[in-house]
């Protein structure tokens, strides 16, 4: 499949492992990641997911050399597979960290856009690149990029196909932290461990409100927040958090 999975504590790692092809995505890789994400979504032991790559690329996008053979009647075509993967990644209820180790282009940038927090190595470069080969994005490149960076920068990246450094992308708000190459995985694990110690229930509810807020009016977004709080006040985790605060100890959250 060319994607490896590993569990370190409560952090699940998805590592694209096709370095000789710049971790370009095959159908098997996309299907495998979708299956793994769905399994981790329903596994209470997994509280955070990190996506990264091996070699000099995070992901250079889809493998354009892979044949686009028509599916048999009733089978999913390549676009169905791609849409399912990105829908699964974007709607994943737990925090997802992109640890961008190198080039993140086209579909690779779209993977980054679907993650919650972006850590990037100093040597990483990020760009859309679809226009370089007359390919139209299908994983959110044109739809999501303008929600992550200023509109004129999104247009520049989409139209030119150019890539920018991790430091430049941090300036535009896409990258959260720029990290020395050799320290990227350690930093991603440390951040994953920190998030894993939070209430998984409160993080899932925060993520749900944040993900939907930009599609609502301010009043509707605030109402959504209050409704989530109303439900959360009935949870074990909020009571455990308040008890831990009063008792001056670390809370032991259970996710319900």
What characteristics describe this protein?
single chain; 256 residues; alpha/beta; 2-enoyl-CoA Hydratase, Chain A, domain 1; 2 domains; six-stranded mixed beta sheet; four-stranded mixed beta sheet; 10 helices
The count of strands amounts to: 10
Query: What class do helices, strands and sheet pairing give?
Result: alpha/beta
**What share of residues are in beta strands?**
15-25%
Radius of gyration: 19 Å
* CATH topology (fold) name of the largest domain: 2-enoyl-CoA Hydratase, Chain A, domain 1
User: What integer is the average pLDDT?
Assistant: 95
Helix content: 40-55%
**Order of SSEs:** EEHEEHEEHEEHHEHEHHHH
For the record, the CATH architecture of the largest domain stands as Alpha-Beta Complex
Major sheet size, sense and barrel closure: 6 strands, mixed
Shape: globular
Q: Strands across the major sheet, in which order?
A: 1-2-3-5-7-10
List low-confidence stretches.
none
Q: Give the distance, in angstroms, between the N- and C-terminal Cα atoms.
A: 35 Å
- The CATH class of the largest domain turns out to be Alpha Beta
User: What is the assigned CATH homologous superfamily of the largest domain?
Assistant: 2-enoyl-CoA Hydratase, Chain A, domain 1
- DSSP summary: helix tally: 10
Please tell me the total number of domains.
2
């Amino acid at each position: 499949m060319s994607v490896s999975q590993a569990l370190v504590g409560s952090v699940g790692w998805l590592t694209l492992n096709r370095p000789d092809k710049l971790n370009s995505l095959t159908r098997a890789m996309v299907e495998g990641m979708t299956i793994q994400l769905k399994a981790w979504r329903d596994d209470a032991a997994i509280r955070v997911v990190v996506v990264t790559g091996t070699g000099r690329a995070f992901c250079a996008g889809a493998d354009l050399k892979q044949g686009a053979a028509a599916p048999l009647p009733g089978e999913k075509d390549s676009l169905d597979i791609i849409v399912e993967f990105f829908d699964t990644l974007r709607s994943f209820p737990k925090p997802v960290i992109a640890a961008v180790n190198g080039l993140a282009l086209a579909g690779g940038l779209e993977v980054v856009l679907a993650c919650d927090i972006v850590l990037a190595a100093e040597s990483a470069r990020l760009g859309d690149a679809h226009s370089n080969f007359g390919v139209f994005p299908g994983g959110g490149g044109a739809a999501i990029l303008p929600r992550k960076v200023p509109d004129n920068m999104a247009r520049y990246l989409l139209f030119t196909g150019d890539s920018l450094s991790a430091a430049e992308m941090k300036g535009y708000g896409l990258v959260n932290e720029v990290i020395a190459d050799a320290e990227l995985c350690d930093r991603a694990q440390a951040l994953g461990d920190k998030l894993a110690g939070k209430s998984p229930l409160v993080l899932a509810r925060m993520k749900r409100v944040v993900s939907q807020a930009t599609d609502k009016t301010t009043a509707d977004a605030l109402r959504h927040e209050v409704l989530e709080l109303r439900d959360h006040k009935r949870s074990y985790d909020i009571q455990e958090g308040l008890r831990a605060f009063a008792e001056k100890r670390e809370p032991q959250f259970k996710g319900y």
